[in-house]
Amino acid sequence: MRTVDELDVAGQRVLLRADLNVPLDKSTGEITDDGRIRASLPVIRKLSERGAKVLILAHLGRPKGDTFAERAAGGPSLRIVAGRLSELLGKPVAFAADVVGEDAGRVSQALNDGDVAVLENVRFEPAETAKDDAERRALAERMARLGDLYVGDGFGAVHRKHASVYDLPALLPHAAGDLIVAEVSVLKRLTDNPERPFVVVLGGSKPSDKLGVINNLLGLADRILIGGGMSYTFLAAQGYEVGNSLLEADQIPAVQAVLEQAAARGVEIVLPVDLVAASHYAPDADHIVVSVKSFPAEREGVDAGPETRELFAAKLADAKTVFWNGPVGVFEFPAFSAGTRAVAEAVAGVDGLTVVGGGDSAAAVRSFGMPDDAFGHISTGGGASLEYLEGKTLPGLTALED
Ligand code: ADP
Ligand code: MG
User: Which position among 101, 352, 383, 391 bears the catalytic label?
Assistant: First the structure.
């Protein structure tokens, strides 16, 4: 992959595909975690300092509707993100109210060397995510007219075959941005000869999201700790009662196959031994600690219990490489965040390469007030890093390679 340092960007209009897909507060619409904007700053600053005219393409959320107008009326606008970017850069950032329309053309033409502008949410253009190659290609051609060069730095979107990620780089001289280079080099260290023991912690809500990656990790990791919502399906597969906890009953056979594979390959699977069981899913729900051997039928699991927290910490203590994806409890409710906090602290204490992947996991770490540098790397791309570890080819990386 060519890097930005190998592109002559001075005086050129650079279309930068960034990942600015930040979580927004459902009621106020405010940005609740600007980590992805901050992670994009190095390449934006570098391009601007080298005299490029920087035009940023990015998506936000999943707007619905058949046309640009319908999506723009209901979907999240990138205007608020442009505002935060301007604060973080300490200089004005122009905003275009469309992606390839009149306003985008006007903003692109008005840029001076070193200026930065953000285009409206690329997913307001239905063709951005079209399955049809020709439709996506036509949109990419209109995007290409706005710039001279392309820099791909939206790691969180590289697993998507989308116009601005996959089709556009083929139309312009291109390079990979600093964030993508950093993300890929860390993931390579996990897959090519990781230092051992290599311990993986997986949580989050559903095993169906993560069985693909577990299967591939069985060939890489020495030990896999499974917590959070997905652990109930593993516990159920072993015959335990899980009450009203999250359960994907249809995944039980696949989970059993994972357990058998792990045993055959000598990979240790560690499951919770006790849980915090709440009366219902609410921040102030009544809750008790129970052993997994005696889970009450009328309660639901919302966090790892104290013995599980100690067990997971002990299983992480000797690790030389760690990959952690997914909270082990409903960390959004402070009463049920202790398990995830314990995992975060144990991972931070590891003497070796520690990688945190996943939007919610990163948000959890920040909500505990832990500095980003407590970890070796916090990935900005949950789905992208999981697909990389699954061994899949990522369209956005392939597009930057040739
Ligand atoms: P990431 O974004 O880090 O990849 P996921 O999206 O897979 O993580 O999972 C995050 C979600 O999993 C959080 O919203 C959290 O509340 C939920 N979760 C974790 N443990 C539980 C549990 N025991 N019960 C219900 N939800 C859970
Ligand atoms: Mg998530």
Answer: 383
DSSP-assigned letter for residue 30: -
Ligand 1 touching residue 359 (CB < 6 A) = yes
Length of the chain in terms of residues written: 402
Mutate to test the pocket of ligand 1, among 26, 33, 205 (most ligand atoms within 8 A of CB): 205
Full pLDDT tens readout for the chain, 402 residues: 999 999 999 999 999 999 999 989 989 999 988 989 999 999 999 999 999 999 999 999 999 999 999 999 988 999 999 999 999 999 999 999 999 999 999 999 999 999 999 999 999 999 999 999 999 999 999 999 999 999 999 999 999 999 999 999 999 999 999 999 999 999 999 999 999 999 999 999 888 889 999 999 999 999 999 999 999 999 999 999 999 999 999 999 999 999 999 999 999 999 999 999 999 999 999 999 999 999 999 999 999 999 999 999 999 999 999 999 999 999 999 999 999 999 999 999 999 999 999 888 988 998 999 998 999 999 988 889 999 999 999 999 999 997
Ligand 2: distance of its center to the CA of 25 in Å? 15
Is 233 strand, coil or helix? helix
Pairing type for strands 377-378 and 353-357 reads parallel
- The answer to whether 5 and 26 are in contact (CB under 8 A) is no
**List 161, 206, 320, 392, catalytic entry:** 206
Ligand found nearest the CA of 384: 1
In single-letter form, the type of residue at position 17 comes to R
Angle, alpha carbons 268-272-273 (nearest 5°): 110
- 360 pocket-lining for ligand 1 (C-beta < 6 Å): yes
Residue with tokens 């790892």: 304
Sign of CA dihedral 130, 134, 135, 136: positive
Query: How many other CB atoms are there within 10 angstroms of residue 402's CB atom?
Result: 8
Distance between CA 210 and CA 232 in Å, rounded?
A: 14
Reduced to 3 states, what is the DSSP secondary structure of residue 127? helix
Our answer to whether residue 383 is catalytic in this structure is yes
Considering the candidates 13, 17, 35, 36, report the single residue annotated as catalytic.
36
Pick the atom of ligand 1 nearest to 327's CA.
19
219 is catalytic: no
Q: Is the CB of 194 under 6 A from ligand 1?
A: no
Nearest CA to ligand 1 atom 8: 326
